């Protein structure tokens, strides 16, 4: 059996005393890299060998140089391409080999060929009967490893003609080190209790730690882009002093989703075409009774200075369960709680970021479910100016400074504003959200004091996520076609706080 390469090197050093790794590679007929690898493992065992770097310059043929060795120099090829009767220079350029132009001028200066201008058009003819292709002969020497026999001048000339190139190889010159031995003792990798108690540790050799070794990447879960962006939004709300609302109920009653928000029962959004109603259980039964009566009253007859809608409000409609169509249903529950908490109303700032569902036609940017980001502030004497100011502050933290507002309609806010922002990347104004001041018909039945106003706004989480991650189709972000690699390798989200 062949001894291990490390031992062959050591045994060689024992007799030879010194060796260059390049010579060892030739001697053992091994790749030089393998010899160097073996040297590294010898070095890991201690001071067995000395190693100093040596650089070797060597001449080698380029591809073109190899072609010359095989077929002849450019000038020889041109010479060979000239027939006895001569040839027009243009034709010679076509038949005289790959570098006929260079070959032509070299052959001219060697005096091998001439241009006969006594005929028209002029013809190139051979001037001598035979030639010696010195370039090829010299390159052949290089090919045979006898490049050192080449005169320096020719060598420089061939390099300039890109027939030869110099390569630099690094090797190690090895000698015997202080701890030289011809075999490698196995290195210990663990220090055990036995080694310590027996004292054996003192005589053993330990493998050095490799602090450069890369650890195996730990397997772990990955956050979906929507969750990463949600984290950033949450951070902004927290920075602004908002607390998070409990959104852990996808199923909601029509009462909290619509009626509490002063949305009339015949409103088109309450149609099965727009809303997913739930069959099992199809109805909710527990509502704060007095509040429910006040909601019924304000819808059917008005109150609090309002004429109401003037229709026959039905409990059965309010009882219908659905998948919440907006997180404003959660805001309604929270505001009712705020009005009825022990000690009475106190100013509050709430936010939520969670899923909502709409029975919509699906396309590249819409799904039947998405996430809403919602902010709500309840305080004495809030105005539309507070809403606008808050929106500027909120969007500034998202890196958005240019806002515009457009009057809009929501059953539960008055006034209502759509929020537009200028997106420098897309170079246009895009709609980013909806907002408003909650109506007295919504707030007063809850029991909030008359001088308390509530401002609120909502936006989708998907839209900024798609813009931030450069995703054009919602199906690349949500659903069965999502590329898990995208999730795994997607960068963390950092919004450009201004
Ligand atoms: N609920 C609204 C929507 O679904 C958003 C909104 C929230 C509007 C709060 C005004 C106030 O788009």
UniProtKB/TrEMBL annotation:
Annotated compartments: Cytoplasm
What is the predominant subcellular site recorded for this chain? Answer: cytoplasm
A single Gene Ontology CC annotation of this entry is: cytosol
Q: Can you cite a GO biological process for this protein?
A: phenylalanyl-tRNA aminoacylation
Into which EC class is this enzyme placed?
A: ligase
Named cofactor requirement(s): Mg(2+)
Its Gene Ontology molecular function terms?
ATP binding; metal ion binding; phenylalanine-tRNA ligase activity; tRNA binding
Tell me which EC number(s) this protein carries. Answer: 6.1.1.20
Q: Which Pfam families match?
A: PheRS_DBD1, PheRS_DBD2, PheRS_DBD3, tRNA-synt_2d
Stretches assigned to the Aminoacyl-transfer RNA synthetases class-II family profile domain: 228-480
Reaction catalysed by this enzyme: tRNA(Phe) + L-phenylalanine + ATP = L-phenylalanyl-tRNA(Phe) + AMP + diphosphate + H(+)
What keywords are annotated for this sequence in UniProt?
A: Aminoacyl-tRNA synthetase, ATP-binding, Cytoplasm, Ligase, Magnesium, Metal-binding, Nucleotide-binding, Protein biosynthesis
Sorted alphabetically, which NCBIfam families does this protein's record hold?
Answer: pheS (TIGR00468), PRK04172.1 (NF003210)
Similarity field:
Belongs to the class-II aminoacyl-tRNA synthetase family. Phe-tRNA synthetase alpha subunit type 2 subfamily.
PANTHER family, sorted: PHENYLALANINE--TRNA LIGASE ALPHA SUBUNIT, PHENYLALANYL-TRNA SYNTHETASE
Report quaternary structure and partners.
Answer: Tetramer of two alpha and two beta subunits.
Q: What is this protein called?
A: phenylalanine--tRNA ligase
- Please name the source species: Drosophila kikkawai
């Amino acid at each position: 059996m062949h001894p291990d390469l490390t031992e062959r090197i050591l045994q060689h050093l024992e007799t030879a005393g010194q060796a260059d790794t390049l010579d060892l590679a030739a001697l053992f007929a091994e790749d030089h890299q393998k010899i160097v690898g073996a040297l590294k493992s010898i070095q890991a065992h201690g001071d067995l060998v000395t190693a100093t770097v040596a650089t070797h310059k060597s001449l080698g043929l380029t591809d073109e140089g190899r072609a010359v060795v095989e077929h002849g120099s450019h000038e020889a090829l041109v010479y060979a391409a000239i027939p006895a009767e001569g040839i027009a220079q243009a034709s010679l350029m076509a038949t005289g080999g790959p570098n006929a132009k260079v070959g032509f001028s070299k052959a001219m200066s060697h005096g091998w060929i001439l241009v006969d201008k006594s005929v028209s058009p002029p013809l190139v003819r051979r001037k001598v009967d035979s030639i010696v292709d010195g370039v090829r002969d010299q390159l052949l020497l290089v090919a045979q490893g006898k490049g050192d026999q080449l005169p320096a001048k020719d060598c420089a000339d061939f390099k300039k003609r890109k027939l030869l190139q110099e390569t630099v190889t690094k090797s190690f010159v090895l000698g015997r080190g202080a701890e030289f031995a011809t075999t490698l003792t196995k290195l210990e990798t663990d220090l055990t209790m036995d080694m310590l108690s027996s004292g054996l540790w003192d005589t053993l050799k330990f493998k050095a730690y490799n602090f450069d070794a890369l650890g195996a990447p730990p397997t772990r879960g990955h956050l979906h882009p929507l969750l990463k962006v949600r984290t950033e939004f949450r951070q902004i709300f927290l920075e602004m002093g908002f607390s998070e609302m409990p959104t852990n109920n996808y199923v909601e009653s029509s009462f909290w989703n619509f009626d509490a928000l002063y949305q009339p029962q015949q409103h088109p959004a309450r149609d099965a075409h727009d809303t997913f109603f739930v069959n099992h259980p199809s109805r909710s039964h527990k509502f704060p009774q007095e509040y429910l009566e006040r909601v019924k009253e304000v819808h059917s007859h008005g109150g609090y200075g309002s004429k109401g809608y003037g229709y026959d409000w039905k409990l059965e409609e309010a009882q219908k369960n659905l998948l919440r169509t907006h997180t404003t249903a959660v805001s309604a529950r929270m505001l009712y709680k705020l009005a009825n908490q022990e000690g009475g109303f106190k100013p509050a700032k709430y936010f939520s970021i969670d899923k909502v569902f709409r029975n919509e036609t699906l396309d590249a940017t819409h799904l039947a479910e998405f996430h809403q980001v919602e902010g709500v502030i309840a305080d004495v004497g809030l105005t539309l100016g507070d809403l606008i100011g808050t929106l500027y502050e909120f969007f500034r933290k998202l890196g958005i400074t240019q806002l515009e507002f457009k009057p809009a309609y929501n059953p539960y806010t008055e006034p209502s504003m759509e929020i537009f922002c200028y997106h420098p990347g897309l170079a246009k104004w895009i709609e980013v959200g909806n907002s408003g001041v909650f109506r007295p018909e919504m707030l007063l039945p809850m029991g909030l004091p008359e001088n308390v106003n509530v401002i609120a706004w909502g936006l989708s989480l998907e839209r900024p996520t798609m813009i931030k991650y450069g995703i054009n189709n919602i199906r690349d972000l949500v659903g069965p076609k999502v590329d898990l690699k995208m999730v795994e390798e997607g960068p963390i989200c950092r919004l450009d706080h201004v």
